[in-house]
Design brief:
Largest sheet: none
Number of strands: 0
Structural class: mainly alpha
Distance between the termini: 28 Å
Helix content: over 70%
Length: 182
């Protein structure tokens, strides 16, 4: 039985070749390091939440910082790994028409999706950096008893979205170059 062609079969995962290849290698190494750190952050969030539950149940201990710390770790892990996921085309995609389209049509479809994604992510990145700047300048903190600075999650969100935009831009620019070489 013929299975639909996945996005990864339609184009290379990294996409960059020629003059863009060194930049893609740097981003790939950075993404790999971030994935390891994000995995550690997820484990830390699990430990913190488990400690919170056990501390509350067994020792009636206050948990004013645990939930927020776990959320900060989860936000960082989620946004910072978005570029890695995009590099490997691991985001959820609808493949209803992939098997029906020619390889050229699939490359065009992927390019158009990358452009639309880049435009959305560029706006999101800009807003994230403005939120980070405002939180930093105004000294904004969360409304909890712990009161950590909001610049931390906003900064992680902005940095992750910036990496995602760079990855999308590499794929957008590399797509016509890789198509011309085939």
């Amino acid at each position: 039985m013929h299975a639909p062609v996945s996005d990864s079969e339609a184009t290379p995962s990294s996409g960059a070749s020629g003059p863009l290849a060194p930049l893609q290698r740097v981003i790939s190494v950075l993404n790999s390091i971030i994935v390891v750190l994000a995995a550690i952050a997820l484990i830390a969030a699990c430990i913190i939440l488990s400690y919170s539950v056990a501390g509350r149940a067994l020792f009636k201990a206050a948990n004013y910082w645990q939930d927020e710390a776990a959320v900060f770790l989860l936000v960082g892990a989620t946004f910072m790994t978005a570029a890695y996921v995009q590099e490997h085309r691991g985001h959820v995609s609808i493949e209803a028409f992939v098997g029906l389209m020619s390889p050229l049509a699939n490359r065009i479809r992927l390019w158009l999706v990358d452009v639309a994604s880049f435009l959305f992510c560029a706006f999101f990145t800009w807003k994230s950096w403005t939120l980070t700047h405002e939180a930093w300048e105004d000294g904004q903190v969360s409304n909890s008893m712990w009161s950590p600075p909001l610049a931390i999650p906003y900064g992680l969100m902005a940095a992750g979205m910036t990496l995602l935009c760079i990855q999308l831009l590499l794929q957008i620019v590399a797509a016509p170059l890789s198509g011309a070489r085939r």
